[in-house]
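I am still learning, so would you mind making up any protein sequence you like and the tokens describing how it folds?
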Amino acid sequence: MVELNPMARAIMAYGSPALLAAWKMGLVAGACMIIFIGRRSRFTEVGAWIACAVMAMLTVHWLRYIHTAHELTPYLEEVSEHAGDRWVAMTPTP
């Protein structure tokens, strides 16, 4: 897939699902810590609700993608040829 986030692309370039999972869990833990520390602030509560809405929209986006992925399969090879270093494949290294 094409990964536009340069940090995620760098992590995924290692080809390690465990490293990717650890990185994502670290980000979630950091976000939870920030929300926990600021839990008594109205600003933090508003930020948490906004983050929740963004995550809900992202979930809907990925559900649509999963639903239509079979239609995109023929085009993925062509995209991978033109995406350059933004194309990321999580495959084991030989």
Remarks:
- The mean pLDDT is 83.
